[in-house]
User: What shape does this take?
Amino acid sequence: MLHPLNKATLLGFSSIFIWASLVAVVKLITESLSPILGVALIYSFSAICILVLNGLPKLKLMPKTYLWGCGALFVLYEILFLSSVALSQNREQVLIIAMINYLWPPLTIVFSIFAGQLNYKLPVILGFIIALFGLMMVVNPQLFDLYRLLLILQENPLAYAFAFIGALLWPCYSVFTKKYAEGHNAVPVFFVVTALSLWCIHFISDEVFILPSFNLWILIAITGSLVGIAYSQWNQSLQFGNIQLLILATYFMPILSSFMSMVILGTRPDLAFWIGTILVSIGALICWKSTSPKG
Assistant: This one.
């Protein structure tokens, strides 16, 4: 029998693995459906799953700033990030969008410093620069060719913009949750609102409703349920697992996500992409090592 600490930590690792696979699986599903419909179906199953596992929280007891402010940030992030993946025009763009999204670990550290939640040392600046440099290599291996960069961004400006805005919103959510949540957890409600919002966008935009095949229904149900389980497990892991080890593991998500995308989508990133991906993780690690919580 596993020691409770080890079991909780392993559950946290499984959540990280699910999130790292999410980008590729969402792309796989939305290739057969209209973009918003695909993610609306996935998150409908996620909302149901997390409600079954956690129940409906007592909203009246929660601080209004957390419930409305952090709730809005959570919902907007999920919609923008998932939509950016769904709106990608090919599987190569999915990899770029994922890397833009994975700027959130170093950005969370920077925002936490600005919010006065972390002590820091000067190498944190170096770490952030390395992460940005890595992202630039992923987007445009010819770093100093600005014209080529503009051409790449113009291929799908909406998807790239959604991914970047999402990468800014999640650190804001993390920082404000730490400040205002007071130990409460409204994530099940946030998931329900996210799913409903996606359905509203689907119908308002007059997007075509495509009935999934039986096999696709199975994949949607499994994916949505796993996402719900991942969020549910993560809270338990943070309370009872090795939090330092789990946070460290999140900084390797760019590499893991790229590997999972390569396996699931059959993509073959070039050497510059892998170097850039590793640099994003290294930059995040330097930021992490250069900070400590304030007493």
